[in-house]
Amino acid sequence: MKEKGYEIKRYDYPVKRYCQTMDLKDNPELIAKYRKCHSKVESWPEIRKGIRSVGILEMEIYIEKNHLFMIVETPLDFDWNVAMEQLASLPRQSEWEEYVSAFQLCNSDASSAQKWRLMGLTR
Asked: Tell me: the pLDDT tens digits for 57-79?
C-alpha cells in the first residue's frame, strides 16, 4: 500500500495541516497493541467524536517501526493551542491518553499536546 501512496480527502474550502511525530516503545508486541487500539473496531468513539468537536477535520497516523507521524487537517481559522486545551478537557480524553501511554515513549500523565512534537516545514 505505501508504495502506491495514500489518497487524500478533498474539501470545498482551503485547509491547513499540522504534522507531528512521536516514538513508541521499541517492542513489537506493544506496537501491535497500539495499532489494534487505533483500529476502527477498537478505537474509542468518544475520542473520535472529541477530535471532531474541537475542529479537526482529519487525523492520520503513519507508522514506521516504532516511529509515528501524524497529519492533522483543519480549517484555516483553527487555533492549535485552544483546540488542544479543549481536547484535554473532554470526557475520557485523559483516560485515553493514560491508556495509550503504555505504548508510547512519554510520561503516563502527559496530554496529547505534550506527547506529540509539532514539526515545521524545511522551507
From this structure: 999 999 999 999 999 999 999 99
Euclidean distance between CA atoms 105 and 23, whole angstroms? 6
Q: Which of residues 38 and 108 earns the better pLDDT score?
A: 38
Query: Is the pTM here over 0.90, yes or no?
Result: no
Domain span at 44: 15-119
Evaluate whether residue 6 is within a structural domain: no
The answer to whether residues 97 and 110 touch, using CB atoms and an 8 Å cutoff, is yes
Beta-carbon contacts of 114 under 8 Å, excluding residues fewer than 6 positions away, are 106, 107
Q: Which three cell numbers stand for residue 112?
A: 496529547
Give yes or no for a contact between 74 and 16, defined as CB atoms under 8 angstroms apart: yes
Residue 7 belongs to some domain of the structure: no
Alpha helices in the chain (DSSP H): 28-37, 45-53, 80-88, 93-100, 112-115
Look at the chain and report how many structural domains it folds into.
1
Average pLDDT over residues 103-119: 90
Largest CA distance in the chain: 41
Q: What is the rounded end-to-end Cα distance, in angstroms, of the chain?
A: 29
